[in-house]
Amino acid sequence: MDQYDVVVIGGGPGGYVAAIRCAQLGLKTACVDDWINKQGEPALGGTCLNVGCIPSKALLDSSHHFHHIKHEAGDHGISASGVTIDVNKMVARKDKIVHMLTQGIAGLFRKNQVTWLQGRGRLGREKQVEVTASTDESAPKTVVQAGSIIIATGSVPVRIPPAPIDNNRIVDSTGALDFRETPRRLGVIGAGVIGLELGSVWKRLGSEVIILEALGEFLAPVDREIATIAHKTLKKQGLDIRLGARVTGTGTDSLQVTVNYEQNGEKQQINVDKLIVAVGRKPNTEGLGAAEAGLELDDRGFIHVDELCRTNLPDVYAVGDVVRGPMLAHKASEEGVAVAERIAGKHGHMNYDIIPWVIYTWPEIAWVGKTEQDLSNEGREFRTGTFPFAANGRARSMGDTTGIVKIIGDAATDRILGVHIIGPNASELIAESVLAMGFEGSTEDIALTIHAHPTLSEAMHEAALAVDNRTLHF
Ligand code: FAD
Ligand code: NAD
Predict the structure, then answer these.
(1) pLDDT of residue 140
(2) Ligand 2, atom 3: nearest CA belongs to which residue?
(3) What's the CATH class of domain 354-467?
(4) From ligand 1's centre to the CA of 53, what distance in Å?
(5) Which candidate among 105, 205, 303, 440 keeps its CA 20 to 30 Å from the CA of 180?
């Protein structure tokens, strides 16, 4: 039986990063992963690279270019006629990017001498892992012995009985990355991150998009001021977002999907060409043998871990979407690194208070730390400073003036408690705030930092100045 210092189960951003870091630290490491890509080949990278972060951003970028050329380039004096989109080519480009990046992970495994065991991993007895080949389930199982095990089996989409996925008319996020043509009318259930990102992709390409959201509040976890601007802006872009809509049933025929829902106590119906179900994701422990191994799950099915990602079984850790906390690729990877370092006897560090979030609509939405509503609920005193992109020179030259930066500082100490941005390139701008908060910085620290001119980051500087009512350009 092959022996490893560490066996990682799952090759997504939690698992593959943990495996690379373990190997870098001199630990003999194997990573078991069962992903089979749409070409029928084993592929590393998990949800994120294959059907998540990367392909969705590839489509967001393609659709952004199309929309910009068609609707905004004219403002720059650029005229283009007969602009069309070849959806198959756009999807093929996305597939090529995914292929290149997943192959890249296989290359990193070779470089770092991580053994890739292709198949489904199951917890055996005494830190053994049984591997069943995903391409040939009748093949004999391989059993490997681990010193430590890191479980990073990720998550899968939540399904709802009124809208069963048929991978034709009713799809989940994976199906929505592979439409062969732009749907004339697209329905989306769930106005969360996936609903808004993928809804935006197809809206920009010309679909009429109707989003049905069960909650009465738009983007409930987001700072209210930002969510209000986002709601208004996305509605103006043509996303028809219907709040408080409870889907009761669907029916499909060869041409369309009928969606029945209730809103404000009234029965409603829409007919669409395609329906995306994006109502959240749930932890994936299927086939892991958790119950037989005595691995403790919490009441929502997540693997129970402490703050150091230790499960109830000795030397068995779990990271990423399969444990508590936000379901984000960078959270999964950082937990993977921290656990690898702890196994190697170092002090792996993870600061859960400063995990940035980004929603890749346009304008983008990004935040870190607490919202105003969090702080009000905690009864904590704070001060805020905001600055609009409309008053930022770079945003004006780009023609992207919608949005604001908002910084929240502790009323007594001025320590930054949260930063909330809606605006162009918010995904990149948020990094400065994460760093400042990591160093326990104050809004004054950002106010004292020289920001290059003309840049979008000057909006951050001005928002920090605004905390003390001393903005210069607004
Ligand atoms: P996963 O990436 O899910 O990987 C788990 C891997 O383990 C998979 O390969 C799976 O097949 C494998 N596996 C499961 N069970 C076993 C087993 N028993 N044996 C062997 N292998 C197993 N996050 C962001 O931060 N930014 C984004 O922009 C973003 N966009 C997204 C867009 C979409 C459409 C979706 C669906 C998700 C997006 N996410 C994004 C979320 C992100 O993809 C996840 O948070 C991230 O992939 C979690 O990483 P993970 O390693 O925990 O799990
Ligand atoms: P989500 O939790 O972001 O949003 C789901 C939405 O569906 C919520 O607003 C919820 O109220 C609504 N909903 C739930 N049940 C419903 C029902 N029956 N009818 C109508 N609405 C219903 O989940 P998601 O959009 O599916 O994304 C899953 C996770 O993937 C995200 O939470 C995030 O962790 C990750 N993700 C991240 C990114 C990113 O970082 N940019 C992008 C995509 C996905």
Answers:
(1) 80
(2) 192
(3) alpha beta
(4) 9
(5) 105
Counting from 1 in the atom list of ligand 1, the atom nearest the Cα of 57 is: 28
Q: CA–CA separation, 46 vs 329, rounded Å? A: 10
Residue nearest to atom 9 of ligand 2 (CA): 192
Q: Is the pLDDT reported for residue 199 higher than 90?
A: yes
Q: Which residues pair with 152 in a beta bridge?
A: none
Identify the active-site residue in 71, 76, 349, 453.
Answer: 453
* Spacing, Cα 194 to ligand 2 middle (Å): 6
For the segment 381-396, the average pLDDT, to the nearest whole number, is: 98
pLDDT at 137 over 80: no
- 3-157+282-350 maps to CATH 3.20.20.140: no
| Closest ligand 2 atom to Cα of 53 | 42
The verdict on the CB of residue 153 being under 6 Å from ligand 1 is yes
Assess whether 76 carries a catalytic annotation: no
Entry pTM: 0.97
* Assigned CATH class of 170-279: alpha beta
Q: Is 154 left (phi over 0), alpha (psi -120 to 50) or beta?
A: left
| 190 CA → ligand 2 middle, Å | 6
**Can you give the residue ranges of every domain in the chain?**
3-157+282-350, 170-279, 354-467
Residue 276 CB less than 6 A away from ligand 1: no
Ligand 1 atom, smallest distance to 14 CA: 51
